[in-house]
């Protein structure tokens, strides 16, 4: 039976969806283990071997908790908030190229990417900018002053840091000349990684990524020392779980985007050499597929490194004060991002790319 | 499928636009407005204008509406604190709105939308690179002027945020 | 006026450019935490691993039996007198005929109760006992319980089992070196 390309692509979409959820699930476990290791502890190790079933235990706990609605809360929006947070978080992973193409014997070629759009970068940017609605709606609908403060902080922070993030991306765009994430990855596959051209842009981008995902040191919307729990103060049960889960999905997506944009995506050193060697010994099909699979593995290695980096930073740095946060965003990152654009423009003008 | 999608999006856009006007709660109004923007972005996508759709989402739904919501959340809008509007204000508002509707209808009454000719229609016209070429060749001056305006606004916001000398440094 | 020389004068200066860039300090902090990532973990996985008791640890009391399995306690009350927390109460009784294999002395404790909520585990009862009957075990603690009256330990829980194999080995278990050191210390105190 001939399986059409579209069905294969559907399979890839499902796989991407599943992998995103799986990685987010195990991020909760990894977060606790990394936190423990950085603090000279061992972390959860009771549920299953090395505590590997811990996410399952957490899920069971969250599902069986009492579903609580605060008095005076807007019920519809109260439920809608976490759903929206989860949806927007999941949407972003759709355009990330997880690998090059796989070619089957009959010539069928499938891309290891859920959907390819030629404005992939804008798509990610747009979806990420919508992520803040889940937090805002949830925080407002809770009818709680702490939650509202968390929501308001999230909004101000997201808008401020989106600006610097967009500016960093503009500089990257000038180098790559395309908005498609796949083409950006392929360019790096054939040339140098973008981090070589855009070191400053990468630093700006990673700082903004921390702010956009509401991770320490920018987790002011949920800082428990000032706002109890921020926007999820009133949430319990799986609605709370969805918020926590959405954060980890966002971390995963941010890591994937950073690896793709700046660290070569699915390319790894020595791939052309390997391709040539395999081409001579095994034929084109095998060479292409092997390099693709190795590339996917490399991409995941990069993503895992960045996820670890997110956690590493979280358990190292203290939280910014609110005025410090705004000052960093507006008076440091933003001007630096503009200077970065100018520098990039000058380089392209005088040296070519 | 394209036609039914068009009708669905139009239905959502109109319904949520009406929701913006008729919703009692301003937060709901803002959320309906966001939904309207999404429906309009969907229309852009149907017209193969991906860039416009994405930018509409990023700028309007992602940034401006966040600020709208931000401000509305700060207002303590309850039924009790709602000021009693005088009848004169209501009448004025009705007349102003009616006039706007009148003008719109008058303007659009005689418009004959030029249907796309399938033979010469360029499906790539809404793509990013086409748009970029048009903006940077045909409309270079207005585009650059607008960008300078934005840059001035951004620099101004940064200047407002700068610490003045002698200000308390926590 | 300066009372000590440990006072530090702290001045709040505006941050330099390097400090305002945050990144050098951030890198420094990250390296410190990374070092801890690979360092030895302090965790003791409790049920499998247990923290060793201190050689002088004083835990749950035990009323000892002698070599023939008779209770040593003669209910003299010295332990109750010595107890600073007044945790020990007892009722003395006279040994009947035929009970010689149960109690070593003619007078014995009909009931002997220690309130573990009052006890401060100072070990003075152990020192006061002329019959070497009460000991604080080195390897057992009074376990947590839900009810207050469960903390009042009667003879049923204090007296060690008749079967010598089931007994705790001794009140305090010392290695030969520790025993020697203890003996030397005691000799020093007495001298």
What is the secondary structure topology, with strand pairs?
The complex is a heterotrimer of chains A (353), B (170) and C (191).
Chain A: H1 5-38, H2 54-64, H3 75-92, E1 101-103, E2 109-111, H4 120-141, H5 145-176, H6 181-190, H7 194-197, H8 199-212, H9 224-227, H10 237-262, H11 271-282, H12 284-314, H13 322-351
Antiparallel strand pairs in A: 1-2
Chain B: H1 2-22, H2 26-46, H3 50-74, H4 87-109, H5 128-137, H6 140-161
Chain C: H1 17-20, H2 23-37, E1 61-63, H3 78-82, E2 88-94, E3 107-115, H4 124-128, E4 134-136, E5 152-153, H5 155-158, H6 176-190
Antiparallel strand pairs in C: 1-4, 2-3, 3-5
- Pair with the biggest interface: A-B, 35 and 28 residues
In the predicted model, the low-confidence regions of chain C spanning at least 5 consecutive residues are none
In terms of structural class, how would the helical and strand content of chain C be classed? alpha+beta
Sum up the overall morphology of chain B in one term: extended
Give the key terms.
heterotrimer; A: 353 residues; mainly alpha; two-stranded antiparallel ribbon; 13 helices; 2 strands; C: 191 residues; alpha+beta; Alpha-Beta Plaits; 3-stranded antiparallel sheet; two-stranded antiparallel sheet; transmembrane (chain B); membrane (chain B); NADH-quinone oxidoreductase subunit J (chain B)
Structure description:
Chain B: It is a multi-pass membrane protein. Chain B: It is found in: Cell membrane. Chain A is mainly alpha-helical. Chain A has one domain (5-351). Helix content of chain A is 70%, strand content 2%. In chain A, strands 1-2 form a two-stranded antiparallel sheet. The termini of chain A are far apart. Chain B is an all-alpha fold and 170 residues long. Among the domains of chain B are: 1-77, Four Helix Bundle (Hemerythrin (Met), subunit A) (Up-down Bundle), CATH 1.20.120.1200; 129-162. In chain B, 72% of the residues lie in helices and 0% in strands. The model of chain B has no long low-confidence stretch (mean pLDDT 82). Chain C has six helices and five strands, in the order H-H-E-H-E-E-H-E-E-H-H. In chain C, 25% of the residues lie in helices and 13% in strands. Chain C is an alpha+beta fold and 191 residues long. Classes of the chains: A mainly alpha (353), B mainly alpha (170), C alpha+beta (191). Chains in contact: A-B, A-C. Chain A binds chain B through residues 74, 77, 117-119, 122-123, 125-126, 129-130, 132-133, 136-137, 140, 148, 151-152, 155-156, 158-159, 162-163, 179, 321, 323, 326-327, 330-331, 334-335, 338, and chain B through 27, 31, 34, 50-51, 54-55, 57-58, 61-63, 66-67, 69-70, 73-74, 127-128, 151, 154, 157-158, 161-163, 170.
């Amino acid at each position: 039976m001939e399986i059409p390309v579209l069905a294969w692509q559907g399979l890839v979409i499902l796989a991407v969806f599943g992998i995103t959820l799986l990685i987010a699930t195990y991020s909760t476990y990894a977060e606790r283990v990394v936190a423990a290791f950085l603090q000279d502890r061992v972390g959860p190790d009771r549920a299953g071997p090395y505590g590997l079933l811990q996410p399952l235990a957490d899920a069971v706990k969250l599902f069986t908790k009492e579903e609580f609605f605060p008095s005076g809360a807007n019920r519809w929006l109260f439920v809608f908030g976490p759903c929206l947070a989860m949806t927007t978080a999941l949407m972003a992973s759709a355009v990330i190229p997880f690998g090059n193409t796989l070619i089957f014997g009959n010539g069928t070629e499938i891309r290891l990417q859920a959907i390819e759009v030629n404005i992939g970068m804008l798509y990610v940017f747009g979806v990420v900018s919508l992520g803040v609605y889940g937090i805002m709606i949830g925080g407002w609908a809770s009818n709680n002053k702490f939650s509202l403060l968390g929501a308001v902080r999230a909004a101000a922070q997201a808008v401020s840091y989106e600006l610097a993030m967009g500016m960093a991306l503009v500089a990257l765009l000038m180098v790559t000349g395309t908005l498609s994430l796949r083409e950006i990855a392929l360019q790096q596959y054939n040339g140098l990684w973008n981090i070589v051209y855009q070191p400053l842009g990468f630093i700006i981008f990673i700082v903004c990524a921390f702010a956009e995902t509401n991770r320490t040191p920018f987790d002011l919307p949920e800082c428990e020392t000032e706002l109890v729990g921020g926007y999820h103060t009133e949430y319990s049960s799986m609605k709370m779980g969805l918020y926590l889960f959405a954060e980890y999905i966002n971390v995963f997506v941010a890591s994937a985007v950073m690896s793709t944009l700046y660290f070569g995506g699915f390319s790894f050193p020595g791939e052309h050499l390997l391709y040539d060697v395999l081409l001579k010994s095994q034929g084109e099909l095998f060479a292409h597929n092997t390099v693709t699979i190795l590339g996917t593995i490399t991409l995941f290695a990069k993503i895992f490194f960045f996820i670890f980096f997110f956690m590493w930073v979280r358990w190292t740095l203290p939280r910014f004060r609110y005025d410090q946060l705004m000052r960093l965003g507006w008076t440091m990152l933003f001007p630096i991002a503009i200077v970065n654009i100018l520098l990039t423009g000058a380089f392209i003008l005088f040296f070519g790319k | 499928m394209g036609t039914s999608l068009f009708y669905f999006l139009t239905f959502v856009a109109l319904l949520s636009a009406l929701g913006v006007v008729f919703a009692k709660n301003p937060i709901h109004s803002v959320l309906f407005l966001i939904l309207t923007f999404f429906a309009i972005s969907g229309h852009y996508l149907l017209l193969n204008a991906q860039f416009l759709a994405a930018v509409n989402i990023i700028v309007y739904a992602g940034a401006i509406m966040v600020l709208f919501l931000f401000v509305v959340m700060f207002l303590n809008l309850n039924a009790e604190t709602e000021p009693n509007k005088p009848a004169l204000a209501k009448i004025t508002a009705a007349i102003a709105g009616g006039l706007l509707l009148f003008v719109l209808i008058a303007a659009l009454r005689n418009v004959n939308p030029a249907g796309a000719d399938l033979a010469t229609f360029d499906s790539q016209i809404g793509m990013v690179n086409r748009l970029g070429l048009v903006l940077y060749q045909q409309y270079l001056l207005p585009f650059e002027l607008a960008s300078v305006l934005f840059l001035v606004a951004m620099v101004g916001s940064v200047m407002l945020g700068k610490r003045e000398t002698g200000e308390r440094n926590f | 006026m300066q009372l000590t020389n440990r006072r530090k004068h702290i001045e709040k200066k505006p941050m330099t450019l390097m400090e305002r860039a945050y990144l050098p300090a951030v890198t420094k902090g990250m390296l410190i935490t990374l070092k801890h990532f690979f360092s030895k973990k302090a965790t003791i996985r409790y049920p499998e691993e247990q923290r060793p008791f201190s050689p002088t640890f004083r835990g749950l009391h035990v009323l000892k039996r002698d070599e023939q399995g008779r209770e040593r306690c003669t209910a003299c009350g010295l332990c109750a007198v010595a107890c600073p927390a007044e945790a020990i109460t007892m009722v003395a009784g006279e040994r009947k005929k035929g009970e010689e294999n149960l109690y070593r002395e003619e007078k014995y404790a009909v009931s002997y109760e220690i309130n573990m909520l009052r006890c401060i585990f100072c070990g003075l009862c152990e020192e006061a006992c002329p019959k070497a009957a009460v000991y604080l075990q080195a390897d057992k603690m009074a376990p947590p319980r839900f009810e207050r009256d469960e903390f009042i330990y009667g003879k049923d829980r204090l007296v060690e089992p008749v079967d010598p194999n089931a007994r705790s080995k001794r009140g305090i278990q010392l290695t030969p070196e520790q025993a020697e050191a203890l003996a030397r210390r005691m000799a020093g105190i007495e001298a």
